[in-house]
Amino acid sequence: MWLNAPEGSALADFLSRAHTHLSHTPPPPYSPDAFHRLNGDHAISPLPGQGAPANMPRKAAVLVPIMARPEPTVLLTLRSAHLSHHAGQVAFPGGRMDPEDRDEQDAAFREAWEEVGLEARFIRSLGYMEGYLSSTGYWIVPVVGLVNPACTLTPNPSEVDEVFEVPLKFLMTPANHERHSREWQGTLRHYYAMPYEGRFIWGVTAGMLRNLYERVYA
Questions:
Q1: Which of 18, 68, 71, 81 is packed most tightly, with the most Cβ within 10 A?
Q2: Maximum Cα interatomic distance, the chain, rounded to a whole number of Å
Q3: Residue 152 CB burial class (10 angstroms; 0-12, 13-18, ≥19)
Q4: What is the pTM of this model?
Q5: Is the pLDDT of residue 127 over 80?
């Protein structure tokens, strides 16, 4: 059965760590009073005198899909090149929460179905990471899920150009967590990047992968 990880495998090790270190309940809602204790772009690239955003961030959720292979991988998407926001970037399946979503897990599973055709019956929720505040005004809750490799994926061409996998071992190796910087809106910003075989994983996606490393492996 796909939920049974071979003893001594990297997947068994990850599942044991995830059970111990991931939260089994969603993180608390965003609070401006907790801004300086929150994960997010601001934590990677703090600015002098930086305070909480003037506007409340919009709620979002992403699925961090761990493919249940003896050597597990992380499923990622390449966002469609014609999208108005974050076109051509590497991302997790996910997006803004809808009023119909019961909770963050419901939203993450729905987005995975809409973006790549991943059915909820092939996903086992492993838990939650801390919320992540993006510089684009979203409070993102990452839901870590174990995915049955027997699933059939059908990327939605209006949202996703490609779906691919990256070894979890590579992404959880801190030597592969590069620190980059670029000027954005007149300010020098710093961010994580994890280049892999021609893919440039960076920004929010790389930031959340770094958080997964710090929570589960560090």
A1: 68
A2: 53
A3: exposed
A4: 0.93
A5: yes
